[in-house]
Automatic annotation (TrEMBL):
The keyword DNA-binding applies. This is DNA invertase Pin-like site-specific DNA recombinase. Keywords: DNA recombination, DNA-binding. PROSITE patterns: RECOMBINASES_3. The keyword DNA-binding applies.
């Protein structure tokens, strides 16, 4: 017995669904547990028609966007220049230095309260629910990096 969440998610190809039924595969849809062979057949045909309508609308929207001069697709093979890479790197470094400057007073307070190791500082930052730059949990290595950046700011 195949259990599916929604009947239209099993397939939007009527022939596929009808072939499943013909092969004797039993399935039940959680959104329509009472569905019999007739209902499944009708729903399969409706789902296939819906698929065709979605495809038609999508193709028309892409043609219209292209007519407006919009470039379609993602990476078009552009390679960042050395200048672009340098600017990106500088921006990332500035962001990291700013974050270190913001965290320095908190880390100093934790150190003053008796945290001697990097791991203890990390644990206290986690207890205070202060997220890392990427929103995760603190580890000793991350604290070390923040402290090194803070030292570079002092120079």
């Amino acid at each position: 017995m195949l259990v599916i969440a929604k009947l239209d998610r099993l397939s939007r190809d009527a022939a596929f669904l009808l072939n499943l039924q013909a092969a004797g595969v039993r399935f039940v849809a959680a959104d329509m547990p009472e569905a019999n062979e007739l209902v499944v057949g009708i729903m399969a045909v409706v789902a296939q028609a819906e698929r065709k309508m979605i495809s038609t609308r999508t193709k028309a929207a892409l043609v219209a966007a292209k007519a407006r001069g919009r470039k379609l697709g993602g990476d078009r093979g552009g390679v960042p220049t050395a200048e672009m890479q340098a600017k990106g790197s500088a921006a990332a470094k500035a962001k990291a230095m700013g974050r270190a400057a913001d965290l320095l007073p908190v880390i100093a307070e934790i150190r003053a309260a008796g945290a001697a190791s990097l791991q203890q500082v990390a644990e206290e930052l986690n207890k205070r629910r202060i997220p890392t730059a990427r929103g995760g949990m603190w580890a000793a290595t991350q604290v070390l990096r923040v402290e090194r950046r803070a030292e570079a700011l002092k120079r």
